[in-house]
Amino acid sequence: DKEVRAIFLRLFAQLFQGYRSCLQLIRIHAEPVIHFHKAAFLGKRGLIENDFLTKVLNGMAFAGFVSERGPPFRACDLFDELVAFEVERIKAEEGNPPKMIKHVRELAEQLFKNENPNPHIAFQKVPRPTEGSHLRVHILPFPTINECRVQELLQEGLARSQGAPPATRGDKKCVVPAGPPVGM
What we know:
Organism: Probosciger aterrimus
Oligomer: single chain
Strand order of the largest sheet: 1-2
Strand content: 5-15%
GO biological process, one term: regulation of Rab protein signal transduction
Number of strands: 4
Domain UDENN: 1-76
Region (Disordered): 159-184
Number of helices: 7
Distance between the termini: 32 Å
GO molecular function: guanyl-nucleotide exchange factor activity
């Protein structure tokens, strides 16, 4: 699973290399608007006639990609590092399958580490139902709700949330590396 995702990560890093150099931040509105210059991107890469890439850039998924990844100051991830620093490595590995496979495995390992930061924590497996368990009908009565206790719990929760500091997200924001400019 992770290796397939790593292959697609490499593919999109190659496909969109240099996209940041074709982004324009428009600050007319209270909320900045990010515009992507498709013609400049395709022209600089010599792919104006490429029907596939033109359709990708005109799609809703790419518009979401630009709005999500366009801001210059946000939390960076593995894709940003690939697009900014590894595109030359990916190009060099095109003719060398063993190096390409090694890089895919490295990326897959990084994806696994990102999703499982504490690998020593064991996941508990759900036990298989016993034979014939589907034939037994267990109808448990729904418990009655104590309205006073519910109100008490709500009040306690509100009191705690008012005294607690505002929740912050754990992602560290940074300036997104632009990477190499768009080229042929």
